[in-house]
Amino acid sequence: MTSPSSSAIEVTGLRRTYGTGDDAFEAVRGIDLTVAPGTVHALLGVNGAGKTSALDVIEGLAPASGGAVRVLGLDPVADRAEVRRRTGVLLQRSGFVGDLTVRETLQMWAAVTTDARPVAESMEMLDLTRHANTRMRALSGGEHRRVDLACTLTGRPELVILDEPTTGLDPESRRAVWKLIRDLRHDGATVLLTTHYLEEAESLADQVSIMQAGQIVREGTLAEIVAGHPSEISFRTPDVALSWPADAQSSRDGDLTILRVDDLQSALTDLLVTARAAGVRLELLTARTATLESVFLAVAADREGALL
Known about the structure:
Blueprint: E1 9-18, E2 25-35, E3 40-44, H1 51-58, E4 66-71, H2 80-85, E5 87-90, H3 102-111, H4 119-125, H5 141-152, E6 159-163, H6 171-186, E7 190-194, H7 198-204, E8 207-212, E9 215-220, H8 222-226, E10 231-236, E11 249-253, E12 256-261, H9 264-278, E13 283-288, H10 292-307
Parallel strand pairs: 3-7, 3-8, 5-6, 6-7
Antiparallel strand pairs: 1-2, 1-4, 8-9, 10-12, 10-13, 11-12
Helix pairs in contact: 3-4
């Protein structure tokens, strides 16, 4: 599955405003976003950052207040019928009929979908076969979410937009969905996803964009996102004075000492040599490079600081 455009999604200067005059609120403030064909792109941000407002425009559910959007080389509003045929969208909430069984729900969905997968294949993909005769109202939240995903993929979409796809799933089911997303990418599909599980984005995404207050404030590969962000060493030690590496910023979290450093290997080596010379054992010692979570939390802290 390939797109005739060089980008599966091309967003330029996108704005989305609610209300008018003094009551106007700009939820999306001139973002640029490019999603390459055959990749997984994660759009992250705290609640209220503008992710859903941006997705509504990309999906063709709402017009842009400003800027331009192309999806598979098409206008998602003017060319909605064509875009919709080639796109699978998973919303945060769905409205299935509770009295229908899982099989009946997927049959109904397949009946209105171009080039639909066989229902048995859809159920197998999402581990729903054993629930085929279960009524929708009797499903757990995680099982209901898997039916959502099965419907989203019924039309073999070129572009898959997943808004928090693993919410409500247990860890085993979440890993199964991760494999499914990787398989979609392997088969040539493009995936744009939002998630609050940062390890999900770390595991799946080729590119990451972080939104804050309606703007994209960080963007790139995972390595690019965390580059320049400090690594962290934490440990517990008896009340003995130790000298920290020169570039370390120290803080306390209960009885733990936390050091934030730019060069993790050099700082950890210096710390261990100093502790050994002082005859001190560093308990609960951990060392980790910067993570997407640490960058995300720093972005969120910047937002909170701006509001004070």
